[in-house]
Design brief:
single chain, 133 residues, alpha+beta, 2 domains, two-stranded antiparallel ribbon, 2 strands, 67% helix
Length: 133
């Protein structure tokens, strides 16, 4: 028995709607799981912002330092996190110096930038340590 084009259209539309409902519910669950995983990852990252200041603007590079593998209730792991932050801050400042040379001396500018970047992470580090206790 041959089916009319209207029947085929309605059957196809019904199938698409049904599939759409199923498809819509799957991403919602997946999205919720993904948001929870993202929150966990964000909770295990310190953001390092390396700034340079010009007379009319501030230019900054942001880098992330993970401490997911560290137990911040241990002093040795806190020291390790601080080392990581210092290394990333220095690398970001060196990259900034390469892109926008610090006047007058590049080395002094890198040191200033690194110090500010490290100081900018202190609250995050202290919050992460407190959460680990």
């Amino acid at each position: 028995m041959k089916k009319s084009p209207l029947f085929i259209f309605c059957a196809t539309l019904t199938a698409l709607i049904a599939a759409g409902i199923v498809i819509d519910t799957i991403p919602a669950n997946a999205q919720q799981a993904s948001e929870e995983q993202t929150k966990e990852v964000i909770d295990e990252i310190i953001e390092v912002e390396a700034p340079i200041e010009r007379s009319t603007e501030t230019i900054a590079l942001k880098r992330q330092v993970s401490f997911a593998d560290l137990d911040l209730s241990k002093h040795s792991d806190v020291i390790e996190l601080e080392k990581r932050v210092e290394i990333v801050a220095k690398e970001a400042c060196e990259k900034l110096e390469e892109m926008y040379p610090f006047p007058p001396s590049g080395l002094a500018g890198i040191r200033r930038c690194t110090k500010k970047a490290i100081e900018g992470t202190e609250e995050e580090i202290q919050a992460a340590i407190a959460a680990a206790q």
